[in-house]
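Weekly sync notes, structure subgroup
Attendees: PM, AL, DS (notes)

Item 1: joint prediction request from the bench team. They want all two components modeled as one assembly rather than separately. Inputs as received:
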Amino acid sequence: MAVAALEGDAGPGVDRTSLKTKLRRAERLNRARSFSLVAPLLLFVLAVFALPIGLMLVRSVENTEVRDSLPRTMVALESWDGTATPGEGVFAAFAEDLVQTQKDRTTALVGKRINYEVPGARSRFLKAGRLIDAGGGGPWKDKFLANDAEWGSVDFWAIMKRAGGVMTPYYLLTSLDLRQDATGAVSWNFADQSIFLEIFYRTIWISFMVTLATLILGYPVAHLLAILPPKHANMLMILVLLPFTTSILVRTTAWIVLLQSNGVLNDALLALNITTERVQLIFNRFGTVLAMTHIQLPFTILPIYSVMKSIPASHLRAARSLGAGPLTAFVSVYMPQTLPGVGAGCLLTFILSLGYYITPALVGGPQDQMVSYFVALYTNREMNWGQASALGAILLLITLVLYAVFNRLVGIDKVKLG
Amino acid sequence: MLAPSYATPREKFTYLVFALYCTLVFLFLVGPILVIMPLSFSSEPWFTYPLPGLSLRWYEDFFFNERWREALYNSSIVAFFATLIATGLGTLAALGLSRGNVPFSGLILSILISPMIVPVVIVAVAMFFGFAAVGLNNTYLGLILAHAILGTPFVVITVTATLTGFDRSLTRAAASLGASPWTAFRTVTLPLIAPGVTSGALFAFVTSWDEVVVALFLASPDQRTLPRQMFSGIREQISPTITAAATFLVIFAALLMMTLELLRRRSERLRGTLA
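Output from the run, pasted for the record:
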């Protein structure tokens, strides 16, 4: 019928067509108008938030150091078959490149990049730099080999060639405690460099403990808030929300003052003769989980509370009148209905816990630092931005997968604040 | 009071234990904050009870020391402009999304909310790299833009929540009576959604006001904010000035909370008359 109306160009069809077109045009205009309201924020978020994160993801596989600094060497290596030490051609090109890197002061940078995959390479590059500075001409191969026998290693040149590629899986593999040998085969990393999987396990384990603690502490409180008359419930709700709006730094400070070895809690324990000496309560796992639990508790309580609030009290009464004991009624009638809230609250707390940085940094020991801490460490102190980006990329992936699950189960538009 | 009237004595006892447990949890929630507040009035620089004596010297340090005063000033400037941007853009977006005819609105909403979910270190490091390329590092503008991003999800959420109870025929009535879209928005829509907008703005303000990680990465000492000043103070040695700053912030937060509560009541009242 629509086709007929569109095809008819005379008679009553004309009017119907124009009406339909008009309506469609009006709807399109209306959609465009709605979208134009959303567009400014969307563009802002995409430009200032999503784009930088996208660039960070690119950085986790980016591999510019060797390509930019040793272009001639890379060209010369193209025809190398990888079975024996490269010939004079490669070494001459390498010497030529090093003259340039010595001038640009980038020798150490290239050395640092190779050093990630071949321990000791940085000092070898610096030594080669001094050899170049000493002047003189070729043939270079013997000169390099005399300077350091390792320049003759086939594996070394294979790794050099690979490090000249546009992209590298090195940082992502290292983040998962994997390494690629000279032939490109992937295996577990050396024990002394395998630190990252443990950090991811630790991050997940701490987040899990915090989530569990908030659930154990929060579930009864949410129930209490839901069954009290509104007047009292609102009063108590302020006690939940006040810490919620108090700065994380303030709360972390409070825990340090309370828990440190000459702090308030230790004073009290001593004065009450509960302990005979000062107990280490902070700068360890206990302090970290405690402070994080304190910060996350409202995030777990609020979604559980809002679900409990919607469960009619008559359900429990009905179960009791049908002969169920108080425990049976609670466990088999009430609790199953609170599960959506429990899921929402726990998932939210777990997701947010994964990204903690400030609290573990201030109240945790070296063994309690989570992934975020190492992202910051590799950015600021180690200046290994590829590694920082790769760790960040994996953390981001875990977070976004859980966010998608949360969105599917709960719906982000159902989140309420206060 | 909690137990139903038909409860057996054993059940009543269970409820008593339950109430006691909840009291302890509430104590856990507010206790630490209440404990440090009096310490800021101590006359000596160590944290012991009973207080050796009372003094306002740490508040004097907080309000008159150059570094703290600068930090307070920087935080206010950054939070103010970040809130302005977040509230403006966030409210517009919520208005657009609530009209219900935006294509891919689910995806768009997930993107707009994601700054709340993505670990803040990732945001900070990504912006540190990204802003360096366009010269925004170590500037007020860079910090303001970053904080605005972190604040927008709260505005979108609160305004969207207010708009779900909004009666669309009101704006249509205004339009049929000859009001232009802008007049209708200004005189009909805005007054009704104002509580949601204000509480979103307050959340955005608090977000910027408390934010430390992004400030650590993006700000030079010139833009040192209050949380950043506190952070370096806690790292080195907790001076009682920090407890004074903390107390100041707690009272500030409590005032904001009360404002939120009043807004919530007002909004409920308004909705009551509309229904």
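Discussion: The CA atoms of residues 48 and 237 of chain A lie 36 Å apart.
Action: AL to compare against the crosslinking data before next sync.
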